[in-house]
């Protein structure tokens, strides 16, 4: 008997993956958590039947949500990750030798436990002594920690359920206050094909709070449309004009991110430019 996992990416678009085995399935206080062994993408994490990550394409997302900002800020020492319980973002952050502390705030303990068991390739960074894992609400954490972090990464799920508040103006203002004087943040901000109004709203909101606002993109095959965006809000540094340390980037041992990708990620197609504040 064939077993397939299907995700309704929109009301009119569905993606399907053939499944060898369901490795884990349970319901946490926040969401349904499942780990699937798929034929095409290997082990895959889903939350509420939505693909979060998988072993085949995860490196694109995790490298782009971390290294663009970490190579824009000249000396990031303290980094906060909100969400991203699979650990992929933390894995990339700890590659940077100058990092002194990484605080990873994930609301769902089950996601962390599942990542440690089924995704050691992603969660390996949790073992780094610079990493502190906090099981708590990320919105509350940023409100309670003002002026602490050089960089904040919002590695959230889609803007439904427990993640809705991570896309609000109030939250972005709290992020601004939680950053140091020259800090910056990066958030995943969905697909311009299917979430154009959300991108308009986020970039306009961030533009009203931060001196520098930039939208950039990457290709993540299992996310809706394959074209995925990230939004950066920076108090001082512009990722489009920063002088990149080529030797430092080469030492990161990345599969997608590079100095060339850093620069070209901000080259937006005309239909995407139309979503930005005038």
TrEMBL record:
<dbReference type="InterPro" id="IPR030374">
    <property type="entry name" value="PABS"/>
</dbReference>
<dbReference type="Pfam" id="PF01564">
    <property type="entry name" value="Spermine_synth"/>
</dbReference>
<dbReference type="GO" id="GO:0005829">
    <property type="term" value="C:cytosol"/>
</dbReference>
<keyword id="KW-0808">Transferase</keyword>
<comment type="function">
    <text>Catalyzes the irreversible transfer of a propylamine group from the amino donor S-adenosylmethioninamine (decarboxy-AdoMet) to putrescine (1,4-diaminobutane) to yield spermidine.</text>
</comment>
<feature type="binding site">
    <location>
        <position position="86"/>
    </location>
    <ligand>
        <name>spermidine</name>
    </ligand>
</feature>
<keyword id="KW-0745">Spermidine biosynthesis</keyword>
<feature type="domain" description="PABS">
    <location>
        <begin position="2"/>
        <end position="235"/>
    </location>
</feature>
<dbReference type="GO" id="GO:0008295">
    <property type="term" value="P:spermidine biosynthetic process"/>
</dbReference>
<feature type="binding site">
    <location>
        <position position="162"/>
    </location>
    <ligand>
        <name>S-methyl-5'-thioadenosine</name>
    </ligand>
</feature>
<feature type="binding site">
    <location>
        <position position="31"/>
    </location>
    <ligand>
        <name>S-methyl-5'-thioadenosine</name>
    </ligand>
</feature>
<feature type="binding site">
    <location>
        <begin position="155"/>
        <end position="158"/>
    </location>
    <ligand>
        <name>spermidine</name>
    </ligand>
</feature>
<comment type="similarity">
    <text>Belongs to the spermidine/spermine synthase family.</text>
</comment>
<comment type="subunit">
    <text>Homodimer or homotetramer.</text>
</comment>
<feature type="active site" description="Proton acceptor">
    <location>
        <position position="155"/>
    </location>
</feature>
<dbReference type="InterPro" id="IPR030373">
    <property type="entry name" value="PABS_CS"/>
</dbReference>
<comment type="pathway">
    <text>Amine and polyamine biosynthesis; spermidine biosynthesis; spermidine from putrescine: step 1/1.</text>
</comment>
<dbReference type="InterPro" id="IPR035246">
    <property type="entry name" value="Spermidine_synt_N"/>
</dbReference>
<dbReference type="InterPro" id="IPR001045">
    <property type="entry name" value="Spermi_synthase"/>
</dbReference>
<dbReference type="InterPro" id="IPR029063">
    <property type="entry name" value="SAM-dependent_MTases_sf"/>
</dbReference>
<keyword id="KW-0620">Polyamine biosynthesis</keyword>
<dbReference type="GO" id="GO:0004766">
    <property type="term" value="F:spermidine synthase activity"/>
</dbReference>
<feature type="binding site">
    <location>
        <position position="106"/>
    </location>
    <ligand>
        <name>S-methyl-5'-thioadenosine</name>
    </ligand>
</feature>
<feature type="binding site">
    <location>
        <position position="62"/>
    </location>
    <ligand>
        <name>spermidine</name>
    </ligand>
</feature>
<dbReference type="InterPro" id="IPR037163">
    <property type="entry name" value="Spermidine_synt_N_sf"/>
</dbReference>
<feature type="binding site">
    <location>
        <begin position="137"/>
        <end position="138"/>
    </location>
    <ligand>
        <name>S-methyl-5'-thioadenosine</name>
    </ligand>
</feature>
<protein>
    <recommendedName>
        <fullName>Polyamine aminopropyltransferase</fullName>
        <ecNumber>2.5.1.16</ecNumber>
    </recommendedName>
</protein>
<dbReference type="Pfam" id="PF17284">
    <property type="entry name" value="Spermine_synt_N"/>
</dbReference>
């Amino acid at each position: 008997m064939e077993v397939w996992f299907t995700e309704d990416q929109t009301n009119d678009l569905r993606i399907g993956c053939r499944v060898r085995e369901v490795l884990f399935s349970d319901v946490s206080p926040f969401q349904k958590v499942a780990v699937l062994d798929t034929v095409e993408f290997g082990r895959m994490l889903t939350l509420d039947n939505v693909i979060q990550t998988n072993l085949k394409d995860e490196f694109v997302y995790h490298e782009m949500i971390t290294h663009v900002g970490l190579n824009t800020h000249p000396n990031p020492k303290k980094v906060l990750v909100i969400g991203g319980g699979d650990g992929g973002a933390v894995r990339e952050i700890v590659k940077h030798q100058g990092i002194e502390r990484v605080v990873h705030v994930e609301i769902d303990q089950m996601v962390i436990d599942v990542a440690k068991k089924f995704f050691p390739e992603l969660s390996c960074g949790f073992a780094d002594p610079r990493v502190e894992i906090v099981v708590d609400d990320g919105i509350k954490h940023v409100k309670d920690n003002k002026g602490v972090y050089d960089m904040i990464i919002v590695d959230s799920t889609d803007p439904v359920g427990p993640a809705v508040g991570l896309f609000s103006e109030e939250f972005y203002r709290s992020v601004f206050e939680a950053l140091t004087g020259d800090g910056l943040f990066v958030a995943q901000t969905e697909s311009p094909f299917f979430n154009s109004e959300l991108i308009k709203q986020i970039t306009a909101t961030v533009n009203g709070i931060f001196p520098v606002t930039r939208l950039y993109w990457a290709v993540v095959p299992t996310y809706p449309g394959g074209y995925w965006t990230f939004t950066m809000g920076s108090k001082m540094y512009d990722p489009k004009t920063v002088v990149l340390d080529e030797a430092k980037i080469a030492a990161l041992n990345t599969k997608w991110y590079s100095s060339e990708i850093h620069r070209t990620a901000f080259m937006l197609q005309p239909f995407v430019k139309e979503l930005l504040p005038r």
